[in-house]
């Protein structure tokens, strides 16, 4: 891969387990042009600046539909173009700009109340306890499949109001649709075709669910959104629900798994968290800096933007390499050290600007409950392999498996 | 100034004073630290007073958090009465004298009283500055006055008017100028807020002044305007600006007057002869300083953010030893206001601005960012219900970017430069 650009090397799965030396190389140029005309921003100061720059658009997706003749004129001339148009105009708000973004996000924030999020703590604790109870008697577990994945999936489904029996369906859908956040995957036609099928399935499902919520309003976010008098239309509602489900799945899985992997690598902090559970909030912030669940996000320059001595030209794709900014020595002294006591830890783990993670408070609660409970109850934990195998994504970066051996599981207190 | 200070006195125990005290300790100052305040209250926060406190949502206790290890001697309820620069000593109202090695003057401002003393003393006539004021006025509003007359076209007047409407109290807002809020926001945006106030039921009178008040048994019953109209009201709030608390500096040889205490870019107080007053610093509403974002023109900024920023710089410079180690106060003024359901934020100063451009949203939607230009450069930006983009405009103002700045942006109408 010596001939490839630095960002191509970052995308290369061979470097997934430790991209940080490549990030350090990238930071030598705060904003660096890649051969394909993409600009990668990798230093904290420039990221903090550009993330709030109104000349940077989040509406960066390539046209989702490339025309393919199916041989059926009604499908080709009517159904598909209409669907494509609808999909283009009703993307999830993570891919949209103000004012539409602000309106949709505002409606979601009204449902994502602090009370409702705090109310999930007890439920999260109960789910955590149950999942750890199931590990009793086992000597080997896969933390991802046995814990990190099922916990946030159940939490987000409950919060949104997806019936528990339908949860398994979301596994496949969410994993497939998460590729929309991976520029190296979303470009190819096969992935696009799969995403289209997947989106149609999930959209049909959610449309049915919305109908039910309108007939029988429940105490959940989808019910609130579906019954909001001056709420969003059904297309935006579907896109929003899909976004919340996907974003609530993959990211928290990574946060919990990365957290356990980091604590296993630095056993002194495992011990501290066991004895000082009050350390959890700071430890999780440091985790969000040190091993964030989302490594980069893509944007589009709407105008020439002078920054750090160069000009990002109009229409250039821009990559915010947030995880590199998190290790910027100009902002964080000794950045490659995992230090939960780090003062003034203004990391970019949840992004920034107007697209700052909507689910941040929920993610913090889930990670806190999960990590505190795991270190308390799991005994004699060792890694079977390090580094573990990673999922292919370079943006939503996280282990596919984290296989561990156990000596025992303490009773739930 | 090279000697390490052992005794530091801070006159003024509000946001700037407390911020400086914390900063001094954080920077390792271990000597004697005294804070002098004329009010009996521990340092408290003022912004909620005209909003949540008056509305009855927060208690009047808006005490600012204080570090448990601050170890400061608070001399509360005792105003400073005199400063002796040569003897390096502050005299207090109770006759005690405080010697200092470094002095921070952060005495702030007070509400400008209603000019007619007899009228000012009537029951039902209020000003609003401190928490005692907020308590008294809040109690009156909870008792549902028949009508509140507000005098003054500034932010306090508008915030109180908004609170009254939230409480469903009839309000008449008297503004002397032709446009409200023009000093801070310019006529166009000021006019927009005025429109919103009217829609929310405020009886807004522009170009209106009070001729006299009417009273029965020492209680306000009505006001008579200069044009002869009589408005019945049992409550009046005079929000007609502030006076700087500089009288105690009379005879001290410091360059202090109604415009404030003059200091240099390092927050050092200046003597009337223009020289630096050794060991004396100033911060917050009382200070008048050269604004580097306006070619060093002297400015006094009565904002929460400036009080904190300036106090932190002053504290650092008090411990810096000599001028070469001092930091310049280059804070870009910013403030916010909440009223009539809108959040208004401003960065920079609009004074002297000759151009305005709506750069996001629109006036019609009442959700916008507007940039202000002066002689071709960007000097300020105001956001109404859309503050998220302000950091970018802040950077443009700091860089003195050409006006209009940041073209080709998201949610941007076709930029049309107009008069502010």
TrEMBL record, chain A:
Keyword annotations from UniProtKB, A to Z: Heme, Iron, Metal-binding, Monooxygenase, Oxidoreductase
Organism field: Methylobacterium radiotolerans
Protein's recorded name: Cytochrome P450
Keyword Iron listed: yes
InterPro entries: Cyt_P450, Cyt_P450_B, Cyt_P450_CS, Cyt_P450_sf
Cofactor: heme
Pfam families for the chain: p450 (PF00067)
Top-level lineage group: Bacteria
Family classification: Belongs to the cytochrome P450 family.
């Amino acid at each position: 891969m010596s001939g490839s650009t630095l960002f191509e090397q970052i995308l290369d799965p061979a470097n997934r387990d430790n991209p940080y030396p490549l990030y350090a190389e990238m930071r030598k140029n705060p904003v660096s042009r890649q051969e394909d005309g993409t600009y990668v921003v990798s230093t904290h100061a420039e990221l903090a600046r550009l993330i709030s720059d109104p000349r940077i658009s989040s509406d960066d997706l390539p046209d989702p539909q490339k025309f393919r003749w199916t041989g059926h004129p009604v499908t080709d001339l009517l159904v598909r173009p209409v669907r494509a148009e609808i999909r283009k105009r009703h993307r999830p708000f993570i891919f949209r700009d103000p004012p539409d973004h602000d309106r949709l996000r505002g409606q979601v924030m009204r449902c994502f109340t602090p009370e409702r999020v705090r109310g999930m703590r007890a439920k999260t604790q109960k789910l955590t306890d149950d999942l750890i109870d199931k590990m009793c008697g086992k000597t080997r577990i896969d933390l991802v499949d046995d814990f990190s994945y099922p916990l946030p999936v159940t939490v987000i489904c409950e919060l949104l109001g997806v019936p528990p029996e339908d949860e398994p369906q979301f596994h496949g859908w969410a994993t497939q649709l998460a590729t929309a956040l991976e520029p190296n995957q979303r470009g190819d036609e096969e992935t696009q075709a799969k995403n289209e099928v997947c989106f149609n399935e999930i959209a049909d499902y959610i449309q049915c669910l919305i109908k039910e919520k309108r007939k029988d309003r429940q105490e959940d976010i989808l019910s609130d959104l579906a019954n909001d008098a001056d709420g969003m239309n059904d297309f935006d509602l579907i896109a929003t629900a899909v976004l919340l489900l996907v974003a609530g799945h993959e990211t928290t899985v990574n946060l919990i798994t990365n957290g356990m992997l980091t604590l296993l690598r630095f056993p002194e902090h495992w011990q501290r968290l066991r004895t000082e559970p009050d350390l959890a909030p700071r430890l999780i912030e440091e985790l969000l800096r040190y091993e964030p669940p989302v490594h980069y996000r893509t944007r589009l320059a709407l105008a020439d933007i002078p920054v750090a001595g160069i000009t990002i030209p109009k229409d250039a794709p821009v990559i915010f390499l947030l995880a590199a900014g998190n290790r910027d020595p100009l902002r964080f002294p000794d950045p490659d050290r995992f230090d939960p006591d780090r003062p003034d830890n203004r990391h970019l783990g949840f992004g920034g600007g107007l697209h700052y993670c909507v689910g941040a408070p929920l993610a913090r609660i889930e990670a806190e409950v999960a990590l505190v409970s795991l270190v308390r109850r799991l005994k004699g934990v060792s890694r079977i392999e390090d580094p573990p195998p990673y999922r292919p994504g370079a943006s939503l970066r996280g282990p596919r498996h984290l296989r561990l051996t156990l000596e025992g599981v303490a009773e739930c207190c | 100034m090279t000697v390490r200070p052992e005794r530091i006195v801070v006159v003024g125990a509000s946001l700037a004073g407390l911020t400086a005290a914390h900063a001094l300790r954080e920077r390792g100052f271990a000597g004697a630290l005294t804070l002098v305040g004329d009010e009996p209250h521990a340092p408290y926060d003022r912004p909620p007073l005209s909003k949540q406190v008056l509305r009855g949502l927060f208690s009047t206790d808006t005490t600012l958090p204080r570090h448990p290890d601050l170890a400061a001697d608070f001399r509360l309820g005792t105003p400073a009465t005199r400063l002796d620069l040569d003897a390096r000593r502050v005299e207090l109202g109770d006759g005690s004298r405080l010697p200092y090695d470094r002095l921070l003057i952060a005495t702030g401002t007070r509400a400008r009283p209603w000019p007619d003393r007899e009228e000012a003393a009537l029951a039902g006539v209020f000003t609003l500055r401190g928490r005692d004021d907020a308590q008294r006025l809040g109690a009156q509003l909870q008792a549902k006055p028949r009508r509140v007359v507000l005098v003054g076209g500034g932010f306090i007047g508008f915030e109180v008017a908004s609170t009254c409407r939230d409480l469903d109290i009839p309000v008449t807002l008297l503004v002397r100028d032709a446009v409200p809020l023009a000093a801070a926001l310019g006529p166009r945006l000021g006019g927009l807020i005025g429109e919103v106030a009217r829609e929310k039921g405020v009886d807004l009178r522009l170009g209106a002044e009070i001729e006299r008040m009417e009273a029965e048994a020492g209680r306000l019953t009505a006001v008579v305007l200069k044009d002869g109209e009589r408005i019945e009201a049992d409550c009046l709030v005079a929000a007609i600006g502030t006076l700087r608390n500089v009288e105690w500096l009379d005879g001290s040889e410091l360059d202090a007057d109604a415009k404030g205490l003059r200091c240099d870019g390092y927050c050092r107080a200046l003597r009337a002869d223009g020289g630096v007053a050794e060991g004396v610093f100033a911060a917050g509403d009382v200070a008048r300083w050269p604004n580097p974002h306006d070619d060093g023109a002297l400015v006094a900024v009565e904002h929460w953010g400036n009080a904190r920023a300036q106090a932190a710089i002053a504290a650092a410079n008090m411990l810096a030893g000599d001028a070469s180690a001092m930091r310049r106060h280059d804070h870009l003024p910013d403030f916010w206001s909440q009223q009539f359901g809108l959040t208004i934020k401003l960065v920079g100063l609009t004074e002297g601005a000759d151009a305005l451009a709506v750069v996001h949203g629109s006036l019609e939607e009442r959700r916008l960012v507007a940039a202000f230009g002066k002689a071709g450069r960007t000097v300020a930006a105001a956001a109404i219900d859309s503050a998220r983009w302000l950091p970018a405009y802040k950077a443009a103002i700091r860089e003195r970017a050409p006006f209009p700045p940041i073209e080709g942006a998201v949610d941007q109408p076709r930029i049309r430069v107009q008069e502010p």
